[in-house]
Amino acid sequence: MALETSPETPVPVRQVVSLISGWVDRLGAVWVEGQVVQLNRPANSNTDFLTLRDKLADVSVQLTCPRAVVDSLPTPLVNGAQVIAHAKPVVYPNRGSLSLQVRELRLVGEGELLARLERRRQLLAAEGLFSQDLKRPLPFLPGRIGLVTAKDSAAEKDVVENARRRWPGVAFEIRYAAMQGPNAAAQVIESLGALDRDPAVDVIVIARGGGSVEDLLPFSDEALVRAVAAATTPVVSAIGHEPDSPLLDLVADLRASTPTDAAKRVVPDVAEEQQRVRQARERIRRTVLTFLAREQQHLDSMRSRPSMADPRNDLVSRGEEVLALRERSRRVLGHVLDRAGDDLEHSIARVRALSPLATLNRGYAVLSDADGQHVSSVDGVTAGSTITIRVADGRIGADVTEVEAIPLPLPHEES
């Protein structure tokens, strides 16, 4: 029943929302199909919140679903999955919003396929096949590029032409394989193995244009993923377009968004590298010139010093110092020799004064008996004995005719 309202008799918001809720409630539960574009699973809640979008129109609706219903699916629910939901429309009066309360949820078509791929991705990731530690760096300039693609395909043309446009001398080793269908994965594995065993191939590119999820399914094949992980040559995945993400992209050493992007990532641009070489040469030239200028300035500074301008200046001053030192040494040595000569003369005089010969020169003599013993008393000499008299300039032999003892004076008499 339509409400009779006017500017004078408006109805409150709660009444309008209540009427809308009643009208919606008459619809009852319905089956609805759409694509999951947002999945929110709060940690402390038993309810999951989904956003379901119509693939043919820009229309979406919110779904509330018990977590047990989502967990009961055969494969995990992921964004992009196509689902069919049995749900009842509900209007929440507090927010005035519409939501579908899900009672049953099923994966269909592409959605089920995406869910299986997500399950496979999780299992392979748990084995560590997608680890960044396993990624191998690509060579800067590969001598030969291995290419796996379909014969006469646009992907082959994009990779080869763009690579040669960037680096004209690049060489290719191409292996053709089916890029879709039941035999695609096996043929790609065979071509990959042949290129991996070729020692001349430095990098391998697996390229294919865009397509549906079903068309790209061979590039999520588990056997192909494991073959790429086991390859010793770096592998570049160039499958589809930017939104496409087969499992090959995760295991490859490098993911290229398109075959054209793969050509740009595998070989450098010769024009850019020439520009870098020119810039590097210019930097080296400036560095060398700066170094030479600094060293020349240092050399000029050293040459401007007086000692370097005329090295004889220091030699003259040092020579004068040497002459002065030599003269002073001569004077000091002369004084030392003079003092030493005086001391020597004094010592000689004292020695001569103490010498017995000096005493003999003063008129004294030394007597010795026939046995050569010195005679210092009359007690050892008798009349008629022979004695030898030692004087300053010789010896005299004599016979004693008389001996006379003379008493020695007492000490007080001497004084």
UniProtKB/TrEMBL annotation:
Q: Name one GO cellular component term.
A: cytoplasm
- Pfam families associated with the record: Exonuc_VII_L (PF02601), tRNA_anti_2 (PF13742)
**Known catalytic reactions:** Exonucleolytic cleavage in either 5'- to 3'- or 3'- to 5'-direction to yield nucleoside 5'-phosphates
On whether Cytoplasm is a keyword of this UniProt record, the answer is yes
- GO MF annotation, one: nucleic acid binding
Q: List, alphabetically, the NCBIfam families matched.
A: xseA
Give the protein's recorded name. Answer: Exodeoxyribonuclease 7 large subunit
Q: Which organism is it from?
A: Nocardioides marmorisolisilvae
